[in-house]
Specification:
The longest helix has 25 residues, at 88-112. The termini are far apart. This protein is 31% helix and 26% strand. By secondary structure, the chain is an alpha/beta fold. The chain contains 13 helices and 21 strands. A five-stranded mixed β-barrel has the order 1-2-3-4-5. Strands 7-14-8-9-10 form a five-stranded parallel sheet. The chain has a five-stranded antiparallel sheet with strand order 17-18-21-20-19, sandwiched between helices. It binds flavin-adenine dinucleotide and 1,4-dihydronicotinamide adenine dinucleotide (NAI).
Length: 475
């Protein structure tokens, strides 16, 4: 006998669990199915983000940054910390605790919102009269039916062709977050978001880090000026980034990993490392969902095909997050989850893809929203640019972190903000002001005329907005 719900959500990552909560808030009876297990076999809702993504990576970035500060920056404050060492096992255990707090938090939210959590794999069985039947297999074993199904099954790491992850030597994001001791030499394939964040963690802890990137341009999707500044900073810190390489055979053995590659000059090279992290993007995940049982359409990349409203080809079946088109970001997944729950309730859920912020949590942090200067040039749009360096910001000087700048791009005629790009301290927090401004279609002058607290890093944002009109006050 199948249990009947109004809405069944498959996947409890940021897309799924947030969709479930919003649907419950709107008065629906909701079940959320997720198969992730913690190391004791218990439920671990939160998906990639909570278990092997956003949260654990930020925990390790924080720990390694403390270590880096103790070793390299305390002295300038007159704090003498000699012989500072890192207990990697403790650092990893702390990260695991942070993850568990988040898993438990989501289980609490399910209870609070009266959502039935089913721990197991959800698979379509068949379309029923006006709905769908799904089978849950795992810790929970049952059948559920619902008129509305939200698929939020996420993504998995892409492996190099012919080189599967063994999570001992050749690591995906999962293994990269569980390395037990600082490797002497660490290699990474791909200088994207994971490559830079994970490379930074282990570089700060003492590993010699080499990143091999296939493209000839560093961070091609980022504003060129920002990418150039970040590249300079990372290189100075000791991250070795080789661009324009072609990765060949990867051999993994007892002594570590050797990577054959051709460099940008066409010369044959070999990189010998203790561990190799492969971070070359992620693939949408529909494993075990039995999409074929109901005729759910996937695109050529294996993503679930959806329209602008996250509707699939099947009536009453929606899909959100990493498993559909668009940026693979937790907050994008959440926004889609909320919008879909609201659409099911007959409301007008909305996601503005133009104002989805991006953040890379390196040091300096990189954050942006809207269009880059190269995109504006390519589209032929007339624009004005203004930037302000943290070097001229009092708070940044007091913090001892003056790398980078804030850059505004605004329409040449209307002054509407078209993009904001930040490289520097707390860029992840500063970018929110730009997102709000763009959501309200503010002009650069609007930001320039707003009172910002002194001393604060946000004054660099105001000054960059002033710079659009060539009237900075402190530079
Ligand atoms: P997921 O989080 O992948 O969740 C999908 C869930 O569905 C999983 O729990 C999975 O077990 C479950 N599932 C799949 N199929 C089934 C099934 N058939 N039955 C039951 N359960 C199923 N994004 C950011 O915005 N900020 C960051 O700082 C950030 N850092 C990241 C760091 C790393 C190392 C990685 C790998 C990713 C990071 N991301 C970050 C990306 C972010 O994790 C994803 O965009 C986000 O998790 C996508 O959410 P989702 O709900 O679509 O899918
Ligand atoms: P990515 O798409 O950010 O970067 C992959 C890089 O690998 C690219 O630069 C690409 O050119 C390169 N590449 C691809 N194939 C290659 C090959 N064969 N040889 C050499 N280089 C190759 O993907 P990444 O870093 O794996 O992260 C996946 C996704 O996870 C990100 O796109 C992002 O959506 C999400 N994420 C977000 C974070 C954040 O928001 N702070 C942090 C980490 C991940």
């Amino acid at each position: 006998m199948s249990k009947q719900f109004d809405v069944v959500v498959v996947g409890a990552g940021p897309g799924g669990y947030i969709a479930a909560i919003r649907a419950a808030q709107l008065g629906f009876s909701v079940a959320c199915i997720d198969e992730w297990k913690n190391d004791k076999g218990g439920p671990a809702p939160g998906g990639t983000c909570t278990n092997v993504g956003c949260i654990p990576s930020k925990a390790l970035l924080q720990s390694s940054e403390h270590f880096d500060h103790a070793n390299h920056h305390f002295a300038e404050h007159g704090i003498l910390a000699k012989g500072v060492t890192i207990d990697v096992a403790k650092m990893i255990a702390r990260k695991d605790t942070v993850v568990k707090q988040n898993n438990d938090g989501i289980l609490y939210l399910f209870k609070k919102n009266k959502i039935t959590f089913l721990h197991g794999r959800g698979a379509f069985v068949k379309a029923t009269d006006g709905g769908y039947e799904l089978r849950v297999s795992g810790v929970s074993e049952e059948s559920v039916t619902a008129r509305q199904v939200i698929l939020a099954t996420g993504s998995t790491a892409r492996a190099l062709p012919g080189t599967p992850f063994d999570e001992q030597n050749v690591l995906s994001n999962d293994g990269a977050l569980r390395i037990g001791a600082v490797p002497k030499k660490l290699g990474l394939i791909g200088s994207g978001v994971i490559g830079l964040e994970m490379g930074s963690v282990w570089r700060r802890l003492g590993a010699e880090v080499t990143i091999l990137e296939g493209l000839p341009t560093f961070l091609g999707a980022v504003d060129e000026q920002v990418a150039k500044e970040a590249h300079k900073a990372f290189t100075k810190q000791g991250l070795k980034i080789e661009l324009g390489v072609k990765v060949g055979e990867v051999k993994s053995g007892k002594k570590g990993v050797s990577v054959a590659y051709t460099n940008a000059k066409g010369e044959a090279q070999t990189l010998e490392v203790d561990k190799l992290i492969v971070s070359i993007g992620r693939v949408p995940n529909t494993t075990g969902l039995a999409a074929e049982a109901v005729g759910l359409k996937l695109d050529e990349r294996g993503a679930i095909e959806v329209d602008g409203d996250c509707k699939t080809n099947l009536p009453g079946v929606w899909a959100v997050g990493d498993v559909v088109r668009g940026p693979m970001l937790a907050h994008k997944a959440e926004e889609e989850g909320v919008a879909v729950a609201e659409r099911i309730a007959g409301q007008h859920g909305h996601v503005n893809f133009n104002t989805v912020p991006w953040v890379i949590y390196t040091s300096p942090e990189i954050a942006w929203v809207g269009q880059t200067e190269q995109q504006l040039k390519a589209s032929g749009r007339a624009y004005k640019a203004g930037s302000f360096p943290f070097l001229a910001n009092g708070r940044a000087r007091a913090l001892g972190d003056t790398t980078g700048f804030v850059k505004f791009l605004a329409d040449a005629a209307s002054d509407e903000i078209l993009g904001v790009h930040i490289v520097g301290p707390q860029a992840s927090e500063l970018i929110s002001e730009a997102v709000v401004a763009m959501e309200f279609r503010a002009s650069a002058e609007d930001i320039a005329r707003i009172c910002h607290a002194h001393p604060s890093l946000s004054e660099a944002t105001k000054e960059a907005a002033l710079a659009v009109d060539k009237r900075t006050l402190n530079f």
